[in-house]
Amino acid sequence: MAYDRYIAICHPLRYMTIMNHSVCMWMAAACWVMGLIEPIGHTIEMSKMSFCESHTINHFFCDIAVLMKLSCSSTLTIELLTYILGTLLSMMSFVLIVTSYINIISSILKIQSVTGRRKAFSTCASHLTVVFVVYGSIFATYFRPASTLSDNKISSLAYIAIAPVCNPVIYSLKNTELKKALRRNKNS
Hints:
Elements: H1 2-10, H2 15-18, H3 21-47, H4 64-70, H5 76-109, H6 114-142, H7 153-172, H8 176-187
Helix pairs in contact: 1-5, 3-5, 5-6, 6-7
């Protein structure tokens, strides 16, 4: 999404050439493949663990941090795997998003008209909001010491429920028909 916004704002005349169907398919496929490959190491390591304590998971869902807390085996390997892969994948995508938006903002600031700048910023605002909600909840949930990972159900709830619920709301606020309907209801 950040790359799409970057091309749309920084290279608007070349947008259709750069963001063609095959590029979009390649980007979507890369996301799916990474999403499928990344948890394989965790799954393999989890299958090697033994669970001696209670088999009751005191959480919203079967999260890796909760399972590590229930395990009586050493969790060092899976903790390292979580931090290394999590840092690499999360930070890599986060850096790409930040780099795209730095370029976008520098291009927007070069636009002479106030209306043009406002339109360009509004194009990016919804995506940036979603990025902050998702990455904020991911960092709050997973990038903490292992001893506290399973204790924070609120950040897990933000990651699992609040961020996905906010997505359609945030993106639909850009819809002009929705804005008109909200204004009509407000004036009624």
